[in-house]
Amino acid sequence: MSTAPTFIRPADLDGVTAALSDGDALIVGGGTMVVPELTHGRIRPSALVDLGRAGLAGVTTAAGTTVVGAMTTYTELEHSAVPLLATMAHGITGGPQIRHRGTVGGSASYANPSSDVPACLVALDARLLLAWAGGVREVAAADFFLGAFRTVREPDEVLAAITVPDVTTFGYVKFKLVEGSWPIVTAATVVRADSLRVVLGGAAPVPAAVTLDLPSAGTADPAWRDHVRTAVTEGIEIAGGPWDDVLAPGEYRARIAPVIAARSVARALDEESR
Amino acid sequence: MTAAATGIGSSPRRRDGAELLTGRATFLDDHRPEGMLHAVVVRSEVAHGRIRSIDTTAAESAPGVALVLTGEQAARHAGPVPYFIDPAARGGNRADLRCLAVGKVTHAGQPVAAVVARTRHEAHDAADLVRVDYEVLPHVLDAEAALAQDAPRLYEDWPGNVVMHNRYGTGDPDARLAEADTVVSGEIRIARTTTAPMEPRGYLASWHGDTLTVHASCQNPHQLRWMLATTLGVDEGRIRIVTAKVGGSFGLKMQGHPEETLVALLSRLAGAPVKWVEDRREALLAGAREQTHRFRVGAMADGRIVALVDEIVADIGALTAQAGWAMPNMSATTLPSGYAIPDCRIELDIVVTNKPPLAAARGFGKDAAHFVMERAVDLVARDLGLDPAEVRRRNFVPSDAFPYRTSTGLNIDSGDFEGLLDKTLDAVDHPGVRRRQAELRERGRYLGVGLGFELTPESSDSPGTFVSGFDTTTVRMSVTGMVTVLTGVTSPGGGNDTGIAQIVAAELGVPLAWVELVQGDTDRCPNGFGNFSGRSMVVGGGSATLAARDVRAKLLAVAARLLDTDDVELRDGVATGGGRELPVPEVARALLTRAFAIGDIEPVLESTRAYKPGNIDHVPDEFGRIQPYPTYSSSLHAAVVDVDAETGKVTLVDYVMAHDCGTMINPSLVEGQARGAVTMGLGSALSERLRFDADGRLATDRFKSYLLPRAGDVPLLRMVHQVTPSPFTMHGNKGAGEAGVGGAQAAVANAVEDALAPLGVTVRGVPLTPPAVLALIDEARKGSS
């Protein structure tokens, strides 16, 4: 027999970690994933911890590093100057309602392979700050995601903030079937001195990171495209193989991932307007 | 000050627009009578199985539960649901279908039990506690597989899984194919999609003694009353159906669904009002279309098509008492569309599978005929190296040939198909698109333009079924001059009430604001048939016209006496004659308060009339053909698409629809309908698809997996109108509720094939999702290597 879950809305981070200390609670960020699941009775948690008033929202920048609170919404990101994340937030599906509710921390913690956020965080070499009643620890984004809907976060921990290094040159391309679809493949490119870091979302259970050579003869160059195909295919395998769901089969994602990767490189290198 | 135009052909704002836009309209779920309980349906988890037992003990003792009902219990109180269209009446196989499964389930999602509780949440929780033990039977999810001799049988007393096999057409297509300069053939698969109205279905039943009131989000209140009287064994006069505002129907809300009988029964057994509102997952169970066509078309070198042979296998899922199962018949008989091809043979198998049933859906199967025919025409053009537009021109039924009887029996009332073609090519700037296409191809980009013609039979009549081709309206003027129109047609949300009010206001010469419309109440409205088949303005408008003319004649007679002249005019609420003016309300008051002084004019300002349009003929001709439709709208669609050959994604660049539904009563409402139908077609052409897992359970059960087009996916749909009045309807109007689905599918498919012509791609079905398009490109590359 189901009973209504206990609802806790702590006023600060300490309150959150205290509420999580017995490890049974479900964390609600913006609620865009949790609330529909609750509505349809697909999950029946014993306790809900709402982060809405815990003071975890907002973006601060100091000494070339930006700290993004976990409860920062897509709308706030969109109007911030956080590299890549602002661009990503602008294209989040669902319109103003979703962008006003959905949070960067919620999306990272949910670890949906089809979401925009995880691959962008990995591309930025972001660091994720996990808090628990006994302290905090910091995890590199690349180590945070374990599998589809699985992260290193322990049940008594909460993702409190995300540290983003300063990145100036990047490109982001998202491929969707139609407006209303989850992203099928995303590619975030960060340009480094002598190489490119491209991280693909949607292609595999966790973000697939690859390092690419700079395209000396442009991104349309067939030889460079072959290089991208090889590197991306390998990256997807390392990330757990192609992700497959009702929207698109894995073979399709694997097929277009190099295309989307090349397009994000083109955008990062300003081959077309960003 | 002159009022905005409100007459026939003008577009006054919808009468209920403000109410709808400000959220004040009352929909089914807004009705909450005191003491109301909530029902939740327990649905089969298996696609095919025998029910061994149902354990309701835990559910019955759950908090708030008033009642748990199983199929066996329900069968003691309610009979089988009468068919909207009985397959037996058309020589097919039937089965008794009940509101809750008895003995056996034939699809996942079939209602097997129901729970009534104080709140919806309590009912949901208790429904989860109902334990159904199934003996799982082998299931079949594919119609071709269901045709095999050893396929699992859904209905054991049938010889197979075929509801009916029909053959349509005249002439000798085999001989014509043998003589043809070329024969093109193809196989086309139209995937299963759904209608997805904004408001799902819902019913609220309340008994007062032995009198039943049902508030319903439905299309056909009178038929629903008739149906409930039959299933529940209640005198029809003791049942009242009220259809409040409806948030979209598209055919889904024609009756025959198990929950209609179920909710009425639950309310009787619970002794309280009971409401059930479908959730989105339940709404997405309803299929709208799924067919495979194998066709051969013979053509001469000049592009003249001389023969069509098409074999259709239609997958209707499990059988339904709703009208949905019958749609494939119209796929067959709408061929060969508006083309003069006397030699046709269309073979149709309507097949059951262990998927949820089809529910009626806008297009009603005609969309499949348009899609297949338009693909065939493009393939002929491609084969002969001719312009697809010219092949259409050469084969259209010419404008001077109407009424024209098609090979499958339809008698097209009127049209100017070449006119539509010219208007479409002009509006889309066909030569300009071709120039841009050439330029872009140089740069490795793929732009394409495709055409889709559509002939849309509307306002159908089917003797002995719930499908009637006439309707009835009462027009009543009160002593204050206010007008009440009570009509048997209902509005699914499209606004036909505004159109009917315009007609009545115009006939009576009174302001539109004086006219009140009453629809969807079986206690108030005359006998009628509600909303389907683009009938509302044809027969609702037609009967309203006849009734309004009776009242008008009476007003004129009275005014003539009061003004002492025979030459009276009614306009803007004023009777004018002999140089004097008299407000219409004074004329009404004179008749209704001074009847004896007025003299020998019967003091009633009210008339009830039925309207039967012409052109319907149910007497089979020498070839066995019947003619169930009075009017045939026509439209020509042009889609311009950009195809990303690296990802397979199709982007709509431009869209033109040249539309001819005869006289338009309210052009803005017509365009609203057309845009909706086109968008439905675009969705089914590009992104929508109901998918099932291997066990027959719906995988696309929400809008994140069932992908409807959103505003950003659809370009401005440009409308061009042509008016070819029907000679068989009151105002020359033709049905305007459905045209667009098949035309849009065809235009998009033809445009994609045109875009990818350099790669030699052949389109074989819809939806053309990015993975599907990429697969077509691969197939073409393999074929050419």
From TrEMBL, chain A:
The keyword Oxidoreductase applies. Keywords: FAD, Flavoprotein, Oxidoreductase. The keyword Oxidoreductase applies. Residues 1-169 form the FAD-binding PCMH-type domain. It comes from the Bacteria. PANTHER family: XANTHINE DEHYDROGENASE SUBUNIT C-RELATED (PTHR42659). This is FAD binding domain-containing protein.
TrEMBL record, chain B:
Keywords: Molybdenum, Oxidoreductase. The keyword Membrane does not apply. Coiled coil: none annotated. InterPro entries: Ald_Oxase/Xan_DH_a/b, Ald_Oxase/Xan_DH_a/b_sf, Ald_Oxase/xanthine_DH-like, AldOxase/xan_DH_MoCoBD1, AldOxase/xan_DH_MoCoBD2, AldOxase/xan_DH_Mopterin-bd_sf. Residues 22-138 form the Aldehyde oxidase/xanthine dehydrogenase a/b hammerhead domain. This is Xanthine dehydrogenase family protein. It comes from Actinophytocola gossypii.
